[in-house]
Each structure stands twice: as C-alpha cells, then as structure tokens.
Model the fold of this input.
Amino acid sequence: MNSPTESRHELNPSTRKAVGSRWTYTKRGYALAQSLRQFKRYKVASMITLLVLGITLALPVILLFAGNALQQLGMRNLEGESLTAYLHTEVSDLQGAEMAQSWQGKLGIRSTRFISRDEALALFQENSDIGDAIDVLGRNPLPGAIMVFPDSNTVSPERFESLVNDLRNQAGVARVQMDLRWVKRLHAVVSLIQLVGGLLAGFLTLTALLVIGNTIRLELLRRRSEMEVANLLGASSGFMNRPIIYTGALYGLLGGLMACIIALMAFYAIREPAHELSSLYQSSFQLLMPSFTQIISVICVSFLLGIVGAVSSLYRPSQQLTSRISNT
Amino acid sequence: MISFDRVSLEYQADRFALQDVSFSLEPGSFTYLTGHSGAGKSSLLKLIARLEKPTSGEIKVSNISYSTLSRRQEPALRKQMGIIFQDNQLLNDRNVFDNIAFPLIIGGYKYSDIQKRVNAALNKVGLSNRGADDPMALSGGEQQRVGIARAVVARPKILLADEPTGNLDADISAEIMQLLMQFNNSGVTVLIATHDEGLLNTFDFPRLVIKQGRLLQSANSTIDGFNQHRPTGVRRRTNKPV
Done:
C-alpha cells in the first residue's frame, strides 16, 4: 500500500487519464452523460428504436403537412375568386355605382367594380354566340351588376357564404352568384384528411409513447444495479430518475428529427408528380414544403412525448428497488 | 450513534426477522454483528440503512428518530453512512475512479473536490495507480478495496459492512480489516455483519450476536443498554503495514 506521506491531492498520472470531463461530474451532466453512453453502448438497438419512432411519427407528420398544404391550396383559389351581385332592373346606373362605392371596405370586401346595364349588354354581345338575338327584344333585358372582390380574411367557404347572404340582404340586389360547390368539396376533402390525420396522429402518438415507455422500461432493467447502488449511497429519486428522463427526451428529440427527415423526403418525392397532376387541371398548385416553424413544432412535440413516455414508465422506481444486502 | 429500542421486524404474520431487539452503539465504536445465516443480520443492517421499516420499536441514528423520518429525508440519512457489500457491487460500466466518485456526484461535490477525494481514497486503499482500470480487471481483494474506498470517500459517520471478507482469503481479509480499523480510528462508527469465525477470533471486537431474530448476550457486553467501548487490544494475525 502507499505511504501515508504520499501527497493526497496530487493525481497519479494513470488516474488523471481516468478522470472524465468536468461536466460529467455534475448531477445534470452525469445524467446526460449516462443517457448518451447508453446510446453509444447499444448503438444498433438505439438506432432501431429511433427508426421505429421516426416512422411512427412520420405518418401523422406527413398528413399534417399535407393537410396544411391542401388547405392553403383551397384558400389560394378562393383568394382569386369574385362574387357577382345582380341588381334589380329598376336600379339606375348612378345608384348602382353608388352602391358599389359604398360596399368597398365593408363586409369583408376589398374592392368592387360596377358593370352598368349597357356595359353588360356590350359584353354579352361580344362574348356570346347569341348576342344578336337580344336585338329582337328591342330593349336591354340585362340588369346592372357589381363584381365583388373579397379581402384576404374572407377566404373560407363559410365566410364566403356569409358574405353572399349579406349581399343578398342589401336593397336593390336581385341575386348573388358564386359557384362554391367545388370549393366546398375541396374543403370537405381537406377536413376529412385533417380529421383522419388527427385520429391517426392520436393513435400513432400513443404508439410512440408506448415505444418510448417500453424502451425506458428496458433501460430501467439495464440500470437496475446502478439505481440500487445509488439508492444505498443516498441518491434522491430525482437523481436516479434524471438519466431515464433524459434518455426519454433524447429518444423524443431524435425520433422527431427522424420523423421530419422522413416526411421531408416523402414531400420531396411527391412534389414533382403533384405539380404535374395539378398542371393537367390547369392549376398552378405547387406542393409547399413544410415551414421551419412546423418542423420545429413537430420536434418540440416529439421531445415532450419522450419526456412524458419516460415519466410514465418510471412509477417511482426507487420504491421498487430491493436491497442488495444479502440475507445473512 | 445507533440505538435500537425493542425493535421488531415481522415479514409474515407471526414470523419475525427480528424480535424485541435493543442495543446502542456509541460514536466511534467498532462492533461485529454475528449469527448464522438467516439469523437476522441483514435485516438489522437494512433497518439501520432505512431500507426496511420496523414493525414496532424505535430506531435512532445520529439522534434522528426513524419514526419521524419522511421519505424525502432518507437520502440525507444514507449520505451519513457508507455501505460495503460482500460482492462489492461495483458498477462495471465505468472505471475505478468513476465508481469511487459516484457518491460524491450524488452529494453534489465540486469537480476539484471530487478529484482530490477520490485520489486520496485510492491512495488510502493502495490502488492509486488503478483509477483508470475497469473493476473487472481487478482481483477480488482489490475490488473489495474499491468498494471500501467508495463507501468512505464521502466521509460517512457510520460504516456498515455486510460480510466484507466473505469471498476473500485470510490474508486479504486481514488487509480489509486493517483498512476498516483505520477508518474506525479516525472516528467512524463501524458495524460489520459476519459469521466468519476466523475473522472474529483474529480481530477481537465487541459483538452483537443474533439468533433466530433475537439478540443474545454478547461476549463483551450486556444486551439491554448495550454498553459499547472502543476496543483497546486487537490481536492481529498479520504484520503487514497498512
């Protein structure tokens, strides 16, 4: 054994090599180092778990992103749409122009354009094959009309419908025309996708929680010796649980990241075919890639899922520890 | 330091691991806890370490009454104790240095203090050049010394040892005992559970003798109001320097 005179505080060179980084000897640093060490030690198992998590989370993420993209498509198409309010024939051109002027900036209307009866007739004769037939009548049967361009807040079918009703109730308006059927159908499809996506997201989130929970339970078994010793050395529950929670959080974080990568790859793969399909329908629709905020949100949610999965698996493990003192 | 007052531990109806056990150990004492396998030695150690709760009776350690001790206070109590196991319970996923540093990390010690204390503990147990080794690379005696270093590195007031020499030969056992006696000489209260007759005969210290869960009269003291004295004469089998 060493002489008592040997310096107590001078580190032996071989011991100096054994000392890890400063941060790993703090309570939180220790927990993080232990979590990372588990990933490093069980590389293959950790990668498989992360892939399972990534794929599980990727499906709802893809549906979420796709739902948003389709909703944007619906809104973008509505933005370019206009309504036509046909006036009673008794309404004079002056009155019609005043009405159009008074509607601007109200009722969710961005701008209006009044079309007088004469202008309407001219347009009809110019654009219709039966334009000459109207001469037989000997009078202009067409009413004046006001074209209404809604503002950017009035892009949902519900708001459009409400605007149509408001215009119908205006004095001098005979009827309001706007074909909302296809828009409603598109929104119904988008709503259905969002609902299915929501349900799937719920189920798959639960699956992700179970995967994380199961992984954490295995981790608890692996760390049982360490936790038992820590318990005997006076470690608090917080100290013993912290590496487990960090492991769950890491699984959540990396699983979310992997889900986003898979979703982005899927989007990239279908972007061009979607564009080709939309061009066949004379649409300028382009599948928008998910925004940075959306990606960060998904990773944050996944991170929280990891923590919840880990915490739910812990169930006060320090109470379940049995003493290593043998029965003598 | 440690006192038991009519403590019983019932593990099944009318089946007692310990029954009506009363004794007290003074600070700085060195005591054996002896008895056959299944006599209740481990149950007594578990009660001191608060790993079990008594069915009846009162336990006090360092004037802390266990009957009023909350779960949150248990870690602080255990930090006053160092526990040594027969199978040393080293963590094989880290080197010797980190095994010994573990209680200090739990205690929230500073990095510089951890280095100093672990180094001092390694020197004390004669393993100053083995800090970087894996525990599996050490011999049984060396592993037990690492276990002792880990138990004492945070300078506990009480050292509980459960068959610390159980797997070791006589010479190594003597070395381990010398180490424990050194810590005792620096004021640490030591309680060693053992049924190693060779050890008991070689190093003569007061004994608590347990049989079928009951405390019998010891060689050096009476049971009730167990009056513990610091050992004065110790017969040593080896003359190895410590």
Notes: The first strand of chain A starts at residue 83 and ends at 87. Chain A is about 65% helix and 5% strand.
